[in-house]
Amino acid sequence: ITDGFNGTTSVITNGFSNINTLVGSSANGDTLTGANVTSSWKFDVGSLKLEVGSTILNFSSIESLVGGTASDTFFFADGVTFNGAIDGGAGNDTLTYASSTMAHSVVLTSVGSTDGFNGNADDITNGFSNINVLIGDGLDTLTGLDANATWSVTSANTINYVSGNTLNVTAFAILVGGNANDALTFAAFSAAQNFTLASLGNVDGFNLTATSFNGEFRNINTLVGGASSDMLNGLNAATAWKFEVGSSKLEVGSNTLTFSSIETLNGGTDVDTFTFADAQTFNGVIDGKGGDDQLLFTNYTTALSVVLTSLGATDGFNGTVAPISGGFKNINAVTGGAAIDSLTALNTDNLWNIVGADSGN
């Protein structure tokens, strides 16, 4: 090799060598397939080129780019649209907007036939396929498949998206789940997490943020905390928190979030009800916060002893009860179960109003 590239094309019987610039035909459908070596494909304003080490091929009027079996990286600058399709092929292939200052939207459409994922991006006219890594600029949005998926957070701005294949994602600000079960997990974190529900998901589940992640997750159905003591803050809407056999979850209307490895639950300013199935427990603290918040042990068949310890900082009372290991705060009502339950008041003057059989305030 003197410079440029060697290769083949259907119109040159014995191939070509030392070519630096490639211009496709006037037909729409020309394909350029890279070599089976680590390659950089660069999309700059006024310039499209392929680089392997210091060797460069400038190209134009090509509508399909196919990577080789090694790693291919596709770099997009601001203001550039590729009028065609990009196929990473085999290897660990990357689509990156790291040098951009604009917001981009990437939508996954299917699992790649070779590896990675297929999808659409607003600056690739006919989409991409077999991409394994996405790198954003901190302003971008990624929408996942309409299929069960796990979003596994590995650092403040990186996740692994797993749905059949795996996609490593860095520096995307908004991560949007599809219409199946999207599970968000911080199991890799040892630091305490603070999760806040921002709103109902527009497809299902909830939109939420986490203090250790630079972005927002949308349409999340399952949340898994980390190894430390994590907190979940509910919406300022009527919320049903349910502790059932094999799962804990919260419901706002028809939207549901199943959660685990969370040690503090904070209600919002509306009514929060915390309902326990028989013999179920919560290993942490429950804080009703504002609103008329209730502990419901209606399904319990063993005797419970509820002990009030202080006035709630917001309203209601703080106290202890065996099924909640860390106690409760700001609770306005407690309902016992089928056994003989007891309620112990504060060591102060108290007024008990009996309004019905086994009930009062």
Structure description:
The protein is mostly beta strands and 361 residues long. Helix content is 0%, strand content 55%. It has strands at residues 5-9, 12-19, 21-23, 31-33, 39-44, 47-52, 55-60, 64-66, 72-76, 85-87, 94-96, 105-111, 117-121, 124-131, 133-143, 149-155, 158-163, 165-176, 182-185, 194-200, 206-210, 216-220, 222-224, 231-233, 239-244, 247-252, 255-260, 264-266, 272-276, 285-287, 294-296, 305-311, 317-321, 324-331, 333-335, 342-344, 354-356, 359-360. It has a 34-stranded mixed sheet that branches. The radius of gyration is 28 Å and the shape is rod-shaped.
Brief description of this entry?
The chain is 0% helix and 55% strand. It is built from no helices and 38 strands.
What keyword list fits this structure?
single chain; 361 residues; mainly beta; 34-stranded mixed beta sheet; 38 strands; rod-shaped
Structural class, judged by helices and strands? Answer: mainly beta
pLDDT < 50 stretches:
none
The Rg value, from CA coordinates, equals 28 Å
Task: Give the mean pLDDT.
Answer: 97
- How many beta-strand segments? 38
* Biggest sheet features: 34 strands, mixed
Could you give the distance between the termini? Answer: 90 Å
Number of helices: 0
The percent range for helix content is under 10%
Content of β-strand? over 45%
Shape: rod-shaped
